[in-house]
Amino acid sequence: METVEDVVIVGAGIAGLATAVALKRVGVRSLILEKSETLRSTGAALTLTPNAWLALDALGVSHKLNALYTPFTRSVHRKALLEALAEELPADSIRFSSKFTSIEQHKLGDASIVVLIGCDGVHSVVAKWLGLSAPVHSGQAAVRGLAVFPQGHGFNKEVTQFKDVGKGAGFVPLNVKELYWFFTCPEGENMARDPQLIQKEVIEKYAYNFPSQFLDVVRHADLSNLTWAPLLLRQPWNVIFGNLSKGNITVAGDAMHPMTSHLAQGGCSALEDAVVLGRHIGNSFIKNGRLLVSEEMARALDGYVKERRWRAATLITASFLSTWMQQGGSQWWKKVFYAFIFPKLSNVARYDCGTLPSVSASAELQHYSNKSD
Length: 373
Known about the structure:
The chain is 41% helix and 18% strand. By secondary structure, it is of the alpha/beta class. It folds into two domains: 7-135 and 234-372, FAD/NAD(P)-binding domain (3-Layer(bba) Sandwich), CATH 3.50.50.60; 138-231, D-Amino Acid Oxidase, Chain A, domain 2. The chain has a six-stranded mixed sheet with strand order 5-2-1-6-13-12. Strands 8-9-10-7-11 form a five-stranded antiparallel sheet. Helix 2 packs parallel to helix 9 and helix 9 (266-287) runs antiparallel to helix 10 (294-327). The longest helix is centred in the C-terminal third of the chain and has 34 residues, at 294-327. The radius of gyration is 21 Å and the shape is globular. The relative contact order is 0.17. The mean pLDDT is 87.
């Protein structure tokens, strides 16, 4: 007989895996439906600011990344983060090659499915079903990749950034041989898709006037994970006034709040979502004798949405303001912005999403055992 879980999560990205880990910590087993054949590592690496590390502490996985990266390193391999999360889950928690096409098709009215969580990215099927508007273009696109120096890159363990009119770039060491690098510019109509062509266009067409050290980093790009994509965002008022949950269905991560990358909060906020969602579902689970009661889940998800709505809208707005300043504006206004406004926007990273409710290991194992019977 096929097992149907109480909680179904759509998408095995950062938000989906982290949410499953959070639920496991409070004794709730979930099933993740992932359309890819393996864990996705698009984006090569990501920057984790203090709020993300606090969320990882709450999820109980920060020690795994601390063992791989030196203290205070802010960027990590995306694959390493995904694997650290996935390792916390039972082997059968992720069902790969499972494309989620519609809520009706997957019979979510079945009483055995108590909660559905859409973690299915920027173009979320679940968000569309909830009635959230489609993400809009910010006017900028970003190239992201890894640079590999077999003999060592020789750079200090700090972020190096470069700015030009409408453009920005930077890199940060991941270890002694690898760098995570990025380049942003106004979105073009015919962006390259082939990694080798992306590399060539960045060097010869878009960043030719940038310092030679940055161009050398691009020349050392690992073409297997080089991407170029438009930066999308959900309009903050749609997050504030839109339906982020309906009944026992909600969204998290990019499915809720796609945002531009200039404050590096996309992945960080997804980790926050997971902890907050796990806390609200966990509290209801514990309150009801370690049972997921369908009628109570709508209230739990409503509490999650109330806690995340304004936080998500603030992150989207702050990230876009930073993007907007890079797109243009006079030099004197940029000086004012980066001297006085940008530091305040950066404070969004100094946020603690809280912890998960405590549930005994024996109770967690009992719930998992019951779900397997």
